[in-house]
Specification:
Largest sheet: 5 strands, antiparallel
Helix content: under 10%
CATH class of the largest domain: Mainly Beta
Strand order of the largest sheet: 29-36-35-32-33
Distance between the termini: 42 Å
Mean pLDDT: 88
Radius of gyration: 24 Å
Low-confidence stretches: 1-11, 20-25, 314-324
CATH topology of the largest domain: Methylamine Dehydrogenase, Chain H
Structural class: mainly beta
CATH architecture of the largest domain: 7 Propeller
Shape: elongated
CATH superfamily of the largest domain: YVTN repeat-like/Quinoprotein amine dehydrogenase
Length: about 400
C-alpha cells in the first residue's frame, strides 16, 4: 500500500511538471532585433523581406524571414509609427511631427516628404488598385494622389486623434481613433460618414479581410466585426486587455495583439478567439502575416516575435508521456475525439492552465468523447489504468 502511494505521488508530480512545461513553452519565438527602442509597426513584402519601424527613427529590414535585421538610416530621430510598401522598392513611413519618409530603392535611402503638417501621424495606407493614392492619419488626416509628392488635408468632421486607416478600394475606406471614432468614406476621403460602434473606447486598428468583412480592435478588449450593410457588431475576444493591432491573412483566419503580450487567433472569422502563448509580457503594437501560419508581432523594448505554424505548440510531443497503449484520434479535431486503450481506464481532460475540464470512466477499450462545446485551443489528456497512466495532447479547432 505504501509503495503504491509513492508511485501515485510520483506520477502526480510528473503530471504537474508536464503541465507546467506545456504551459510555459512559447508558441511564438523571439527574434533578435538588435534594438531596445519600442517598435510600432511591421510590414512584409513576401516570406523573406520585411520592415519594422519604431521610436527614435528606428527602421529595420530583413531579407531572410527575420533571422537577421539590418538597421537602416532614416535620417530622423522622430518616433516612427507606421510603415507601408506599395512594391518591392517603394515604401512609406509616417510618425511624429508630421514625418513622412519615402524610399524608392528598398530602404537604402529614405527621403523626407512635405506632409504640410507638424502633427503626429499614426497610420499610412495606399490603395492596392492605384498605388499613387495614399492616406496618412493621426492628429490630422492627409491624402496624396501622386505617390507622396504632395499631401492635402482631409476633413473628417471631428477633432479626435485617428489611430488607423484601411481602404478596400481606391474610394472606399475607414478611419478609427479616439473616443470610439469609426468613419467610412465612399468618395476617396472627400466626405465621411460616422459609423456607430457602441463604444467610446479608443479604437487602435482596423483591417478588412474583404470588401464586406472587417474588424476593429481597441482598448479594454473592444472588438467589433463589420457585416456590410449590417454595420459593426460586437464580438468577444475573451479579454479586457487593450488590443492594439489586428490582421487577417484570409477571411477566416485572423490575429490580434496588444497589452501584456496578448495574442488572439481565430479560424472562423471571429466567432471564437483563442489566446496564444507569446512568451512575453511586453506590449505588442503591430502584427503582420505573410500567409495563414507565418507571422510577426513587434512591440515595446525592441521585441520581435515570429511564428511559422500559426502559433500552435508543436515542440511538445503528441505523446508527452506514454507507454504506447493509448491511441488518440483525430488530432486536431473540432467535435469528437476517439480514445483506444488496452483496458478499463479513467480519462481526464485538462486545459493548458491545468484545470480539469472532463472526467470519464471508460468500461471498454474505445471511448468517443464529444468536445464540441470546448473553446478552441490546446488540451492535455490523461488516461489512467490500474498500473500506469498515459499523458497526451490534442488540439480543438
Amino acid at each position: 500500500m505504501i509503495f503504491k502511494k509513492i508511485i501515485m505521488k510520483k506520477s502526480s508530480i510528473l503530471f504537474c511538471l508536464i503541465l507546467i512545461s506545456a504551459c510555459a513553452f512559447p508558441q511564438w519565438t523571439t527574434l533578435n532585433s538588435g534594438t531596445i527602442n519600442n517598435l510600432n509597426s511591421v510590414f512584409f513584402l513576401n516570406s523573406d523581406t520585411g520592415y519594422v519601424v519604431g521610436n527614435a527613427g528606428t527602421i529595420l529590414k530583413t531579407t531572410d524571414g527575420g533571422s537577421n535585421w539590418i538597421a537602416q538610416s532614416s535620417g530622423t530621430i522622430n518616433n516612427l509609427r507606421s510603415v507601408y510598401f506599395t512594391s518591392a522598392n517603394t515604401g512609406y513611413v509616417v510618425g511624429k511631427l508630421g514625418t513622412i519618409l519615402k524610399t524608392t530603392n528598398g530602404g537604402s535611402d529614405w527621403i523626407p516628404q512635405s506632409s504640410g503638417t507638424g502633427y503626429e501621424l499614426y497610420s499610412i495606407y495606399f490603395s492596392a488598385s492605384d498605388t499613387s493614392i495614399g492616406y496618412a492619419v493621426g492628429e490630422v488626416a492627409r491624402k496624396t494622389i501622386n505617390g507622396g509628392n504632395t499631401w492635402t488635408t482631409l476633413s473628417y468632421g471631428n477633432f479626435n486623434i485617428l489611430r488607423s486607416t484601411f481602404f478596400t478600394d481606391a474610394n472606399t475606406g475607414f478611419i478609427v481613433g479616439n473616443s470610439g471614432t469609426a468613419m467610412k468614406t465612399t468618395s476617396g476621403g472627400s466626405s465621411w460618414t460616422d459609423q456607430s460602434i457602441g463604444s467610446s473606447y479608443t479604437i487602435n486598428s482596423v483591417y478588412f479581410a474583404d470588401a464586406n468583412t472587417g474588424f476593429i480592435v481597441g482598448n479594454y478588449g473592444c472588438l467589433r466585426k463589420y457585416f456590410g450593410y449590417s454595420g459593426w457588431i460586437t464580438i468577444s475576444g475573451g479579454t479586457v486587455l487593450d488590443l492594439l493591432s489586428v490582421y487577417f491573412p484570409n477571411a477566416n483566419t485572423g490575429y490580434i495583439v496588444g497589452a501584456s503580450g496578448i495574442i488572439l487567433k481565430t479560424i472562423n472569422s471571429g466567432s471564437n478567439w483563442v489566446t496564444q502563448s507569446s512568451g512575453t509580457s511586453s506590449l505588442l503594437n503591430s502584427v503582420f502575416f505573410t500567409d495563414t501560419i507565418t507571422g510577426y508581432a513587434v512591440g515595446a523594448g525592441g521585441v520581435i516575435l515570429k511564428t511559422s505554424n500559426g502559433g500552435i505548440v508543436t515542440s511538445v510531443d503528441d505523446n508527452i508521456f506514454s507507454k504506447s497503449e493509448t491511441f488518440l484520434y483525430p488530432n486536431p479535431t473540432s467535435d469528437i475525439i476517439n480514445i483506444e486503450t488496452s483496458q478499463k481506464s479513467e480519462i481526464e481532460i485538462f486545459n493548458i492552465q491545468g484545470r480539469l475540464i472532463k472526467s470519464i470512466i471508460s468500461s471498454n477499450n474505445k471511448k468517443s468523447i464529444n468536445i464540441s462545446e470546448l473553446p478552441n485551443g490546446l488540451y492535455i489528456l490523461k488516461v489512467k489504468t490500474e498500473k500506469e497512466f498515459d499523458i497526451m495532447k490534442f488540439t480543438k479547432e
